[in-house]
UniProtKB/TrEMBL annotation:
Lineage: Bacteria, Bacillati, Bacillota, Clostridia, Eubacteriales
The organism's place on the tree of life at top rank: Bacteria
Any single Pfam family the record assigns to this protein: Peptidase_M16_C
Name the record gives this protein: Insulinase family protein
Organism for this UniProt entry: Oscillibacter valericigenes
SUPFAM superfamilies: LuxS/MPP-like metallohydrolase
Gene3D superfamilies recorded: Metalloenzyme, LuxS/M16 peptidase-like (3.30.830.10)
Domain named Peptidase M16 C-terminal: residues: 183-355
Annotated signal sequence range: none
InterPro entries reported in the protein's UniProt record: Metalloenz_LuxS/M16, Peptidase_M16_C
Length: 422
């Protein structure tokens, strides 16, 4: 798919993705700011408050009425972590102009609404509306607390916290409960002003409108955006491998154990590590899935993920408490098999096919495209799905073995039942 990236203003960039096969258009506006423990919860709270109303549409009812007038357009606020940056803003979806009768155009009014949501929120005595602040602060605290209810995601987050505890990568996209409870409206409003002035703004459009029209619509929508002292995005440093494996156990009232394992990667051959991880645990044809889960029935689920910005691989698995050592040993054995090159041809080509299909299907979803290119922009990359696919095609078995031999165990996290606690 064609992609054009252009700078609209100081620290404001547009990624233009022309596409005529969708019946909708997508427009996204995201502030990108370094992820910091002291501001993560505040940044996560901001878009929720901004979504409550603008000067022209001061409450949810007025906003909903305007969206109805725009043929049922939708605007959702987003809070994401990309590399070691936090991305907060809005994603709008609306009927593509080519499907609207009478030649009516929606791009301009939707862009205008996004600009108002970010730059012209409804205020009360020069600050956010106190009822909106208190309500959304409560919602954020509830969302942070509820993360523990999904034990699989909770264990995954805890593994990253323990593995990257001194690095921004270990911080949750929502921050933490203690920081959220301490949030004050005065400080939040000051942070909002700082973001408006200094944070990079990434804009994305996917639809049938020509580039110049999109440029003009967004330039007008964000014409009042103050720009002063734009901060650089945070560039993630590779995770330094530990000399001794860190082991953490936590006991909770759970019926299924969660075993998480974090590995440091010494290779910068990202395509080779990506292929190696796919062979190890990154697909339904991987060694973890076929052997640890299916053949040996040691796990309810077992998969691995490659975090290329940090050069780490994480393994997530759900196990019976008494199977901890067996599952641990077998996961390590399957990694050793990949490192030693004990692979069948069908495994290698299956992993390649899995990745190529994932890149090829990305163009079928506007949401996936927006998230992919936001990740590229927020981590200082210029890759496209087509470029990454070509890199995967060129990866040889020898490169995979060389890259995976640099992978070493770094951190082990085990969530067990209270009955097993010592």
């Amino acid at each position: 798919m064609e992609r054009i990236r252009t700078q609209l203003a100081n620290g404001v960039y547009l990624t233009y993705l022309p596409a005529r096969k969708f019946k909708t258009s997508l427009l996204s506006a995201q502030f990108v700011t370094p992820l910091r423990r002291e501001t993560a919860s505040a940044c996560a709270l901001l878009p929720a408050i901004l979504r409550r109303g603008t000067v022209r549409y001061p409450d949810l009812g007025a906003l909903s009425a305007q969206l109805d007038r725009l043929y049922g357009a939708s605007v959702d606020y987003t809070v994401r972590k990309q590399g070691e940056n936090q991305c907060v803003g809005f994603v709008a979806s609306f009927i593509d102009d080519s499907y609207i009768p009478g030649g009516e155009q929606l791009l301009e009014p939707v862009a205008e609404l996004l600009g108002e949501l970010l730059c012209d929120p409804v205020t009360e005595r020069g600050r956010f509306v106190s009822a909106y602040f208190e309500g959304e602060k409560t919602n954020l605290i509830d969302a942070i607390r509820s993360q523990v209810n999904d034990k699989r995601e909770y264990a995954y987050a805890r593994l990253l916290q323990e593995m990257c505890g001194e690095e921004p990568y270990g911080i949750s996209r929502l921050g933490d409960e203690e920081s959220a409870e301490k949030l004050q409206m005065k400080k939040l409003h000051a942070l909002y002003g700082e973001l408006l002035s200094t944070a990079r703004l990434e804009l994305f459009y996917c639809g049938s409108a020509p580039l110049e029209r999109v440029r003009q619509a967004l330039a007008a929508a964000f014409a009042t955006l103050p720009r002063d002292g734009i901060r650089d995005i945070a560039v993630a440093e590779p995770h330094p491998a530990r000399a001794e494996v860190k082991r953490v156990e936590e006991a909770m009232d759970v019926t299924q154990g969660k075993l998480g394992m974090g590995f440091a990667c010494g290779s910068d051959d990202r395509a080779a590590v990506l292929m190696g991880n796919t062979l190890f645990g990154g697909s339904s044809n991987s060694k973890l899935f076929l052997n640890v889960r299916e053949k040996l029935s040691l796990c309810y689920y077992a998969s691995s993920n490659y975090h290329r910005q940090k050069r780490i691989i994480t393994v997530s698995s759900g196990i019976e408490f008494q199977n901890y050592q067996k599952a641990y040993d077998e996961i390590m054995a399957q990694l050793a098999a990949v490192q030693a090159g004990r692979l069948e041809d069908w495994e290698l080509e299956g992993a390649r096919s899995t990745l190529l299909n994932a890149y090829a299907s990305m163009g079928d979803s506007q949401g996936k495209l927006e998230n992919f290119y936001l990740g590229q922009a927020a981590t200082g990359q210029e890759d496209t799905p087509e470029l990454l696919a070509e890199q995967v095609r060129q990866v040889t078995a020898e490169r995979i073995f060389d890259a995976m031999q640099t992978v070493s165990l770094d951190t082990v996290y085990f969530l067990k039942g209270k009955e097993g606690a010592e």
